[in-house]
Amino acid sequence: MFFERQIYSTLKGHIENKKATILIGPRQVGKTTLMKQLNLDLQTKYKCLYIDLDIYSQYEKINSYENLINTLTLNGYENNNEQKFILFLDEFQKYSDVSNIIKNIVDHHPNIKVFASGSSSLAINNNIQESLAGRKRVVHVYPLSFEEFLNFKEKNDLIGQLHKAADIKSDSLPTLMPELYKELKEFLIFGGYPEVALSAQNEKKEVLESIFDLYVKKDLVDFLDIDKIKNAKMLINHLALNHGQEINYNKLGQVASLDSKTSKNYVEILKETFLITLLSPWYTNKNKELTKTPKVYFIDNGVRNYFINNFNKTEIRNDSSFLFESFVISELLKKGTPANNIKFWRSKNKQEIDLILDDGGAVKPIEIKYKNNIKKSDFTGLKNFMSNYSNYDHGYLINTQTNKSVSENITMLSPFELDNLCL
Questions:
Q1: What are the CA-CA distances from residue 337 to residues 342, 357, 359, 389, 422 (Å)?
Q2: Residues contacting residue 148 through CB under 8 Å, at least 6 positions apart
Q3: Cβ(31)–Cβ(56) below 8 Å
Q4: Around Cβ 192, how many Cβ atoms within 10 Å?
Q5: Is the pLDDT of residue 316 over 60?
Q6: Domains of the chain (ranges plus CATH)?
Q7: What is the pLDDT of residue 126?
Q8: pLDDT band at 130; cut points 50, 70, 90
Q9: Which of 17, 87, 184, 267 is deepest in the core (most CB within 10 A)?
Q10: In what order do the strands lie in the sheet with 20-24?
Q11: What's the pLDDT score for residue 202?
């Protein structure tokens, strides 16, 4: 059964655009499923060809421009036909020459639409930065959003309530809010990988283990040639234990028996393979921002909890607030917020804001509290920020309180209203 992802309609809208559409994201989040379903749906209107570059014999069919055209012709492509021919290339980053082949297609065959997928932003950027400059549209595919998670579990009644909860103008929250929070708690523990969402409760840990094992084999070892796997795992485990904290590269290197430069390089690799995201500190002086240490968050809470072997309920753990912060950050990414636009703020006086959304124009300060009972002190950080930066006079506090309210120039939001934050 195919559960339609929210990004599916976006991909369909790319068909008439001559640029290549590049899907990038972690392994096993559904990029292949998306392309196979798109291939199946489009065959009623277009001639299509799907090539899996994980299989070398498939690569041989397109390992030169001439071979590709021959392969396309054998599958119904006609050079002088204005009708679109759709070409799907799965895991194209495995071979650096494929990007040049895509370049030739985009430049010389406007009647061929290319969809290509890859699992490493680092590898893709290295391979396509120059050859596909101005010839590509990049679409990020992440693990399931919370709404998609509900869809995969066929919780249609809750999806309807979720949409009502997202209406910031509504005077009352929906009656099924307790059920929404019940599902959210599971999402905070096991995350949003599709196979995990579809697995029975007693199988979820095993599925997460297989996801990580494949990540190590395919990304860290085979492709990125990391030779110190044991050290890399120690580094990942330390980051997982310090989820939501600023990275101390010296400490990280000591724990993983790596020098500071190597540990920084490994962290960058983890970011570019979508295991983690890094939040830079926000400053009005951009040069100063570059000198400060980022915070680390795992994009998927299930993967993070696998590393520390903690799948306890949120009620009995001491890191629930960080899981909730990670949820908010990941949801913003899944809703299309660029990672570079999500930051945090800390003043010289140690005043702090969990998130700052900044697209170069609008700025939204956000506090995140995983609790029901909000106190005046919970607004202190937001008020301090707006006092220091008078141009930004409205803040947001995300919490689990079940009644909407607005305090002065601060809007309180439930975790189901995050669409209202997107810039």
A1: 8, 9, 9, 23, 7
A2: 3, 5, 6, 192
A3: no
A4: 25
A5: yes
A6: 8-140 (3.40.50.300), 147-421 (no CATH)
A7: 60
A8: low
A9: 87
A10: 47-52, 85-90, 112-118, 20-24, 136-140
A11: 94
What's the whole-number mean pLDDT along residues 286-305? 84
Rounded Cα gap, residues 241 and 259, in angstroms: 20
pLDDT digits (tens, 9 = 90+) for 388-403: 888 888 999 999 875 5
Who has greater pLDDT, 132 or 419? Answer: 419
Region 221-232: mean pLDDT is 76
HEC sequence for the chain: CCCCCCCHHHHHCCCCCCCEEEEECCCCCCHHHHHHHHHHHHCCCCEEEEEECCCHHHHHCCCCHHHHHHHHHHCCCCCCCCCCEEEEEECHHHCCCHHHHHHHHHHHCCCEEEEEEECCHHHHHHHHCCCCCCCEEEEECCCCCHHHHHHHCCCHHHHHHHHHHCCCCCCCCCCCHHHHHHHHHHHHHHCCCHHHHHCCHHHHHHHHHHHHHHHHHHHHHHHCCCCCHHHHHHHHHHHHHCCCCECCHHHHHHHHCCCHHHHHHHHHHHHHCCCEEEEEECCCCHHHHCCCCCEEEECCHHHHHHHHCCCCCHHHCCCHHHHHHHHHHHHHHHCCCCHHHEEEEECCCCCEEEEEEECCCCEEEEEECCCCCCCHHHHHHHHHHHHHCCCCCCEEEECCCCCCCEECCEEEECCCCHHHHCC
Q: How many residues does the chain have?
A: 423
For residue 390, the model assigns a pLDDT of 83
Q: Percent of the chain, pLDDT > 70? A: 91
What residues contact 270, with CB distance under 8 A and at least 6 apart?
236, 239, 276
